[in-house]
Design brief:
The protein is of the alpha+beta class and 260 residues long. Helices cover 26% and strands 36% of the residues. A six-stranded antiparallel β-sheet has the order 5-6-7-10-9-8. The protein has a three-stranded antiparallel β-sheet with strand order 1-3-2. Helix 1 crosses helix 3.
Amino acid sequence: MPRQSEELRRRIVADINAGVPGTKLGSERELAERYGTSRSSLRQALAALEEAGLIHRVIGRAGGIFISHTQVERSLTDVVGVPAFLARQGYVAGTRVLSTKITAADQRTRTALRLEPDALVIEIQRVRLADGSPISLELAQFPADRFPGLLEQQLGGSLYELLESQYGLVAARADERIEAVNATAEEASLLDIEPDSALLLITRVTYDQDDRPYEFSRDLFRGDRTCLAVTAQGRGVAAAEPADTASVSLQRQGVEVKAG
């Protein structure tokens, strides 16, 4: 995409991110004047954004270009990287790597990854993008002694694919905990949303083919852009409850009440 066209697209996406679903951005004439571009160049940019589901057009006297903000579906039945499930839904995936480091593991991380008290972890923080728009903020940690040279690799794509290709490690299963939280000022700035906006926090421990934990991560997904999907199997009321089952935990005053 030519540089001017990409710059125009980014400016429109920024206004979309700052808006509310259903809000009118303006008419073609108004938008062409606002962005200082020709109607033909604007139409090309709008066509791409409409195809991606970020905007929709309404014809008529009260018509114009409106913000759609379609939701990204995040499946709970697969262990796949963000680029894979974005690509399946027709989005162009992107990544901003915010920070990488090797650091001492805290108690929670040591417990999740079954590490010794003096163990070090590789920590990678990234913002994930869908069609140029921030969709999630990731903080992933890995045992440092298992993945020498990891920080020297390209970290913009799927870490699962990278670990499989470079270290022969396959993501066999993951235990995930999902909570509704509110964005801090820093998180809101990184995700282009207002402070205290709704987020979905997914805390995950991923296990390899030998059932050893190798990833402990904390993913924050924008609540206005993300929905969760899961396929549930019926078993009848008389069947015994399996050992591995999904559950919902209701938290109240530090007490968890599980609903199977």
